[in-house]
Amino acid sequence: MKYTIKNLISLIRTEKIIFVLMLLCVISSSVVINFSYGLYGNYQREKIESESAAKTIEMEIVDSTAVTKDKLKECALSLSDGTNNDIEMYYLTPIIEPFYSGREIGWGTMAVCFSVKGGQITVCDLFKNNLEKNGTIYKGEYFTHIQETQGAFVAIAGDDFGDIDSCSEAITSRTENGTVYFEIQGKEYEVIALHKMGNTPFVPFESLDDDTQFDGEIYLGFESSFTRSEYNEVREVFESAFGDAIIVPEPDITDAGDIYLYNTIIIIAVLIAVLSAVNFAVLYKYILEKRQKSIAIFAICGCRKMKAFTIFLSECVIMSLPIYIISAICYDKLILPRVGEYLDYINEVYSERAYAVIFLIWAVSTVLVLCIMLARAFFGKTLYQSAVNGG
To answer: pTM of the prediction?
Structure first.
């Protein structure tokens, strides 16, 4: 150990510039490798947070006169099969009398739900299954896929028969053999079931008139978080059809460009950390070459190669270890709080265990690089043999 300390003191006295450069290598590798971990952790947290909130697109309808059934159908069918497979539900509120005016007397809002599969308007299985699972639909069954696709004149009535201002009774056109028929948009619908979600009936989207207008929102519910490409596709299709008549909100999701940027920065950071270790080893090799006379004296005095290898490796470790730890502490106390002002989750990804694992990775990588360099110097026909021959 005393030879190690003496060598280190000699290095500081005789090679100040090289010593400073070696310290900078350790400091930069410490800061960069810790930052790269925090950056990656921040990216993962942002990805989770953004995905959890990005499962619906709710487009506000500004001008109802421009948003009609035929245009909505054209938009829905214009989306790619992949996007429509990810969309579980289209949910819309049509402007149909007497339901639209009936909201003032408590009828509630009439709504239609559907999905698009295989290039056709079909039943929204999510809505159907929820109604059936919760016992909301009874005395019959929900529309079949064929009834939705073909726009059959069937309805699921709100269970408000006999109530004051009953919606169902107000639109009943006739009752025949126990079957109730509604008149909606001048067409007769057969009531095939009842529901408990309100007073207004559910009817197939395809059964509505092509010029039926809609208000409120165009709601698209995705099975899982949608991608930026899916959002861009939806936005392009609907804005092309409706222009300023709708407002498509900007989602809070991680852009593919942001992901690429994160990954690029992380790769660069890791490469810088590795290169810093290599540079440290190269600089130390320069020191060894200038110590050929000392190495020759060690060899003449009977110092074995392994002993010399251990002495110089210990010197590197003693010099770099405390500098790394001090740099990591400075990063945590001085740099991280300022970086946290721009990266929302970076402070949350660090812990004592995380710092320990990062240190272990750095230490193993650095020692491995140094061992390779020193092994070539002392066990190959390189520095050690040259020093002995020169001595």
So the answer is: 0.57
